[in-house]
Amino acid sequence: MNTSADSIYTILQNLQIDHVLKQIAEKVLQNERITFDEGVLLYEKGELGFVGMLANYIRNKKHGNNTYFNRNFHVEPTNICVYTCKFCSYSRLIKNREQGWEYSIDDIINIVKKYDGQPVTEVHITGGVIPKQDFNFYIDLFKAIKAHRPDLHIKALTPVEYHYILKKAKMSYEDGMRAMKAAGLDSMPGGGAEIFDAAIRDEIAGGKCSAEEWLAIHEVAHQLGIPSNATMLYGHIEKYEHRIDHMERLRQLQDRTNGFNAFIPLKFRNQHNEMKHLPEATITEDLRNYAISRIYLDNFEHIKSYWAMIGRNTTQLSLNFGVDDVDGTIDDTTKIYAMAGSEEQHPAMSTRELVHLIKAVGRRPLERDTVYNVLQDYSNVVFEEDEKEKARMY
Question: Are the C-beta atoms of 302 and 341 separated by less than 8 Å?
Answer without folding.
Answer: no
